[in-house]
Amino acid sequence: MVRVKRKHVTKHIFITGGVVSSLGKGITAASLALLLKRRGYRVKMQKLDPYLNVDPGTMNPYEHGEVYVTDDGAETDLDLGHYERFSGIPCSQASNYTSGGIFLDVLNRERRGDYLGKTVQVIPHITNEIKAAISSLSGPDVDIAITEIGGTAGDIESLPFLEAIRQYRQEIGRENGLFMHLTLLPYISAAGEMKTKPSQQSVGILRGIGIFPDMLVCRCERPMEDEHRDKLAMYCNVPRELVFEECDVENTIYEVPLELAKQDLDIYTLELLGLHVRTLELTDWKQMVDTYVEPVNGEVEIAVVGKYMSLNDAYKSIYESLTHAGIGNSVGVKVRRIEAQDLEKDGDCKQLEGVDGVLVPGGFGQRGVEGKICAIQWARENNVPFFGICLGMQSAVIEIARNVCGFKDGNSHEFDPDSQHKVVHLMADQHDVTDMGGTMRLGAYPCVLEKGSKAADAYGAKKISERHRHRFEVNNEFRDALSAKGVVFSGVSPDGHLVEIMEFADHPWFVACQFHPEFKSTPLKAHPLFKDFVNASMNIKINKEE
Ligand code: GLN
């Protein structure tokens, strides 16, 4: 008998959103990826964003939340953080496309004359480009590609993306692609009723452009009743068993995959795609959620001192990493959010009193920097564990330069180009940069750790790799002066030229890094620096209480 080897086909799942934004499409997509991966499939993920910025790298965090950075240096949407944290599947440049990026490519090609005199149009040129982005995920090493479409069905901007996924599914066939629509069932308290109409209308919009959702996932505040499921099935043309509920979870977003697994969302997905249903193992995930819900070591309070404190998404990965570190130490982590600028106004650090640790995250621009420096001085002088990240590290160097080394005008070139003591300055390759988009030192770079340092203890390794996003660095001219006063440069680039981690010796835990550890922390494996920072804060609290 001749054996015909079947060609590998990557199956595609397209996730759209309806009714309102902020439904948690990213978390749903990430949860599904986790479940499919745990069923033994090789999954890749992608987000297509309809806005016109080429990438979110130049956006203010108040506009669009944090910018998440991948190993290969892509500045991306924060949903990719959920993808990596839930599924452990690394994202890359191919994981996030925007309308702006797609249009830019097409227009550059038009200018080069690549279209040979043809009229360049949204269909087919833009849609072809989107389809190429989608198919860049598929390949022999990928069983299932999940593509999330940003925005809400009905937005003008999403139309080219929706048209592209319609065509894509048409080309690969029903058995190789499915449409999942995440929608909202609002609860009208005055009527005491949950409503399906907005979801019916949103599915109607999709059907009007040729997309017939195969399954619905319904976000709701309280459980759906049979009658809702029946109505949605009937009016949306979806089999009853393919209408899923995604109720608000009680404690943590990490419960979402467990809730979806209870309804066999992953099993139905695999069956629709004609893939075998293999066993699902989630014991470690369940234990992780249990630890979060009932930590055995009480609670610590950590101050996060930043400049976009009113928006939860602005420091998403930082908050998540603190949660992971809490799980890793079986301790609850309460975050006290402090606007750095307020510390400047107050002229003291009263707002910090009582916290067990202080974290200063990354950032750009002058606003709030002096407040961050005050907070760092407070943590250093009061022996409160301090963790600085990127601008947080640069601010720590400035603080020590001013208050320990006596360089009163110590500063970063970013804030005072005329200072005589620019202890933080522009990196050499940044001097000629004029374009702001995608030109920072981005992505993964290696770092060598000094034996016996807190950093080396935390990692238990000599060489590490971490993700970066910065233009400025510690000025090597001042390294000796800082070292003489107790600064330990415990992590440097392999050639020794770039400071990656600094510590202050005479302190219970004062560690700061130039890179962004928050992009590599997961709930199952807290980042070593976050874990040790929270551990040090826990010990300080225990000592205080004794
Ligand atoms: N603004 C600083 C720099 O560009 C810090 C950047 C950051 O915190 N991500 O170096």
Brief account:
By secondary structure, this protein is α/β, with parallel strands linked by helices. The protein is built from 18 helices and 23 strands.
Overview of this structure, please?
The chain is an alpha/beta fold and 546 residues long. Helices cover 36% and strands 22% of the residues. The chain has 18 helices and 23 strands. Glutamine binds next to helix 15 and strand 19.
SSE layout:
Blueprint: E1 11-17, H1 25-38, E2 43-49, H2 61-64, E3 68-69, E4 75-76, H3 79-87, E5 96-98, H4 99-112, H5 122-135, E6 144-149, H6 159-172, E7 177-185, E8 187-188, E9 193-194, H7 197-208, E10 215-220, H8 226-236, E11 243-247, H9 256-262, H10 265-272, H11 283-293, E12 299-306, H12 316-329, E13 332-339, H13 340-346, E14 357-360, H14 369-381, E15 386-389, H15 391-403, E16 411-412, E17 422-426, E18 441-449, H16 454-459, E19 463-470, E20 472-474, H17 479-484, E21 487-492, E22 499-504, E23 510-513, H18 528-545
Parallel strand pairs: 1-6, 1-7, 2-5, 2-6, 7-10, 10-11, 12-13, 12-14, 14-15, 15-23, 16-17
Antiparallel strand pairs: 3-4, 8-9, 17-20, 18-19, 18-21, 21-22, 22-23
Helix pairs in contact: 1-3, 1-9, 4-5, 5-6, 12-18, 13-14, 14-15
The protein binds glutamine (GLN).
Uncertain spans, ≥5 residues at pLDDT below 50?
none
Summarize the biggest pleated sheet. 9 strands, mixed
Mean pLDDT figure: 95
Radius of gyration: 25 Å
Strand content: 15-25%
Alpha-carbon distance between the two ends: 78 Å
Described by its quaternary structure, the protein is single chain
**Spatial strand sequence of the major β-sheet:** 13-12-14-15-23-22-21-18-19
Figure out the total of helices.
18
The small-molecule ligands in this entry are:
glutamine
Share of helix, binned: 25-40%
Number of strands: 23
> Could you say which overall geometry the principal axes of the C-alpha atoms support?
globular
